[in-house]
Design brief:
- The protein is mainly α.
- Helices cover 76% and strands 0% of the residues.
- α3 crosses α4, α6 packs across α9 and α7 packs across α9.
- The relative contact order is 0.10.
Length: 196
Amino acid sequence: MTTDQTILDGDDRAGDARLVEEARRGQRDSFGVLVRRYERRLLRVIGRFVRDADAAEDLAQETFLRVYERLEQFDPSRRFAPWLFQIGVNLALDYHRKQKRRRKIWSFFFSDSRSERPLDPATPDPRESQELEAEVRQVVDRIPEQFRLVLILRDLEGFSTSEIAAILDRKEATIRWRLAEARNRFQEFWERRLTK
């Protein structure tokens, strides 16, 4: 089991609750332990949505800042990690929506059709894996957000359906349905892409 997998296990629940309580009492080192415990995975999850390393880092920092400011609102009977990731995912989605609007406005006023020409398919490119990754991203981006979010958290980040339910504040059955729907849509969009 990797470190990332163990951070959401029940073993850390009591430890997280203790650290949160200590941080509430002003012990900044305790909050620092929580940051170190979750920062890598949070950064990776946010990065899946924003695809900009600097923006992802800023959003991860903003997430920890908001969590710190809201420690008094944390319910110690619940798990800390889903609460943290819920805040981070919401910030990432807000950022993604704003960027999407900006790109639409920017491309409307400043598009250059010459720069949007497709590359010659006969030209060999040693970066095939990068191209495949970009194609997968394009297909994933076509999936509606409510399904895409579950797909990314489950299949790319390895969260369990119960963890995703806690992060998104939805019933586990809803998460399982959305995951199945997301996988179906991915397959449909991927196959359509191949027939073009």
